[in-house]
Amino acid sequence: MPRPADPAALLEFTENAIVEDDAMASARERAADLGVPAVAPAVGAALSVLAAATGARSVVEVGTGAGISGLWLLSGMRPGGVLTTIDSESEYQSAAKIGFSAAGVATNRTRLINGHALDVLPRLADETYDLIFVDGEVGDAPRYVAEAVRLLRQGGVVVVNTGVAGARIADPKVTDDDVLAAREATESIAADERLLPVVLPLGGGLVVAAKAYTE
User: Max CA-CA distance within the chain?
Assistant: First the structure.
């Protein structure tokens, strides 16, 4: 009888199985120079797969960073699809523009909005987006999720990066603000009858949910 896989070894394999191209590698260097967190390659690959699986044409990203997650999202989107990416740090978005250009992304495929996501999201139209990636401040995750559900079309997907809260969500003894907010966001997704949720142990942890079809 085969021995069961070692979870730690399987996770390490998963995190290291994806090889990024030169544009991604350069974007990671810019992220390191700026001191901005960046999604792991395995997380990026998951975003690309979800974008492709949903046939995404319209995507919203909360937290542009240096553009790494945006490059992954664009790689899975339909040709001509538009990524709307929001960040309050103009320096990060300048770095992201360099990365998009280096990867050959047409300028009309990205809409970079400099501002606070909680100010921007309410101005976006209901049920018009295929995928929403939440990678902003973990403390605001519950509010981001509420906006994401409103923005998603049926069959659309929301992905929440729990980031710094990560695996600590599972430890009931940990009650700092980030963990409490990540738990609240996760629980709100799980309790929403409009959503079909799953938790993926990639990077710091991803909470993923599809908006169910009702007709």
Answer: 57
